[in-house]
Amino acid sequence: MKWVQAMMKYHELLKIVNPKRAKVAEMNEKLSIVRARLEEKRKKLKEVEEMMAELQAQYEEKVETERALVQKIEDSSKKLVRAGKIIGGLAGEKVRWEETVKRLEKEGSYLVGDCLVAAGMIAYSGPFTAKYRTELEAEWFTKISQLGIKVSEGVSMKAIMEDPVTIKTWTMA
After folding, report:
1. What pTM was estimated for this model as a whole?
2. Percent over 70 (pLDDT), the chain
3. What ranges do the domains of the chain cover?
């Protein structure tokens, strides 16, 4: 009898528990589906986060590149302004340089004759008096001119050989 009562109780409990077991099985099935979807969504989320991290890194890299380029532009602008100032400052020098070039070209054409006069005077006029040296220098000038060699007007050994700075130093001493 106890056995029958126990079986009856068991049967009554099964009536209550079986629908709950079925419900648990159904819920477990739904849970596994939801977990599968959740896992899929987590994978997608992870991919999106990785893509976001990659895009963020690219963004930061581009921002840094932009900063560097802006700095280069600023530096170049400063250099351009400085170069403009230098060029402006040198514009006045252009006239002087052109005059110097013309003068040096003219003097260059007389270089051979002028050096010939100076070398001749150094080599041959040392033991003579100043008056005789001046006459000798004039003769050298005339003879070189007659030979068709260009010579500066009023050329002298002193003019070619002297250094004005050294002469000033001697005079001050």
Report:
1. 0.42
2. 100
3. 57-108, 110-173
